[in-house]
């Protein structure tokens, strides 16, 4: 698919750990058939201390991008920077609603606080093939998809930045 795609959701505060982001149809098939793939949201990397430090930032451009959400935090993958370019703030407070924007043509994915449209994290993503929203729940938890945010509001936010 082409163009920009945006979806918003909220993660229940009691959720233990949820991986959210985008993935290509090919990568989703790999994860479905091989849940032990360490990049899979179905693979439990948990070291037992719940810091999200098991997440890593792989190649510069890959066919998926995921962040970890849970226990009131949003964890950006290791080796990444926040949208503000900060390496030290990998653990952010979990916003009430999270938005993800996939710009297929530019090969970029953006994670937003969907209430104020502040960009929390952006990353290059390999958009070969069809891309899908990706959600992986580990332990107890719930994700609620919200109605679409209009492209007009998203375009306005880009002009402001």
Residue share in helix: 10-25%
- The share of residues in extended strands comes to 35-45%
Tell me the strand order in the biggest sheet: 8-7-6-1-10
In whole angstroms, the N-to-C terminal distance is: 26 Å
Largest sheet: 5 strands, antiparallel
Q: Which regions contain 5 or more consecutive residues with pLDDT less than 50?
A: 46-58
Overall shape? globular
Highlighted features:
single chain; mainly beta; 161 residues; 12% helix; 10 strands; five-stranded antiparallel beta sheet; 2 helices; globular
Summarize the structure.
This protein has 161 residues and is mainly beta. It contains 2 helices and 10 strands.
Strand and helix map with partners:
Elements: E1 4-11, E2 17-24, H1 25-33, E3 64-70, E4 73-75, E5 91-93, E6 98-103, E7 108-113, E8 118-124, E9 131-138, E10 143-145, H2 151-160
Antiparallel strand pairs: 1-6, 1-10, 2-3, 2-9, 3-4, 4-5, 6-7, 7-8
